[in-house]
Design a protein that fits this description.
about 230 residues; 13-stranded antiparallel sheet; globular
């Protein structure tokens, strides 16, 4: 295994005046450099996000699929999780564009405080605190938004993955299938998975469900395509 691929399990707590109780979201991230990822969120939401850096696919409740082409980081930030964009930047060593960074060393951890500045993909975020263990893995990410919301993500586990790991292969197969939709349906952004047919399985093996027919998706034409 190498640092180019990894899997992480986490839970996220959101503090907002919009909620009487703090919603808790559980998540799993599979990542491959430079920008391929699969982000699965359960609990207060049921959402899966996949991207190869050129498109973002969002699957709601294992049924409704939104597909967007990305022409840059700003587009990616509109549909992706801001935590994912930060992890992407840190994993690729792309931190020089942040407006300001300060580092505080503690006995068994290091806290990196980041001010994104006027970067378009982080325009809603005032500042971020990233806590690293003494082994260098991310323990938590706390984002302070300009509207007063606070989002804390605590990582429960990290695992390095080999390039041919089944989870990496499965993710890339899923990305390939979704990417083909952008070629065959250039003006369609919305698709609906059939009730008994899903692109992604929640089984422990994280395998793509086999599809008995050639097409498993019914496309709904975007209103602008009429």
């Amino acid at each position: 295994a190498d640092s180019g691929q990894f899997e992480a399990d986490f839970h996220k707590i959101i503090k907002s005046n919009l909620f009487k109780h703090e919603p808790i979201i559980n998540g799993r991230l599979v990542f491959q450099k430079p920008s391929r990822f699969q982000l699965t969120l359960t609990g207060a939401t049921d959402l899966q996000i996949l991207s190869d850096g050129k498109f973002v696919a969002i699957i709601h409740d294992k049924r409704d699929l939104e597909l967007y082409k990305s022409e840059g980081e700003r587009d990616l930030s509109r549909f992706s999780d801001p935590m994912m964009l930060l992890v992407n930047s840190l994993s690729n060593g792309d931190t020089s564009r942040f407006a300001n960074m300060t580092q505080q060393k503690h006995e068994d951890s290091t806290v990196l405080e980041i001010e994104p500045g006027d970067l378009s993909e982080f325009e809603a975020i005032k500042n971020v605190k990233v806590k690293f263990s003494d082994q260098g893995t991310i323990e938590s990410i706390t984002m302070f938004f300009r509207n007063g919301n606070i989002e804390k993500t605590v990582f429960d586990s990290w695992s390095l993955l080999a390039q041919d790991d089944p989870k990496i292969r499965t993710m890339n197969e899923q990305i390939g299938k979704i990417a083909s939709l952008t070629d065959s349906n250039p003006v369609t952004n919305f698709f609906q998975l059939k009730p008994d047919e899903t692109l992604i399985s929640n089984s422990p093996t994280d395998q793509v469900v086999n599809r008995s027919r050639t097409s498993k998706l019914e496309s709904k034409q975007n209103s602008v395509s009429e």
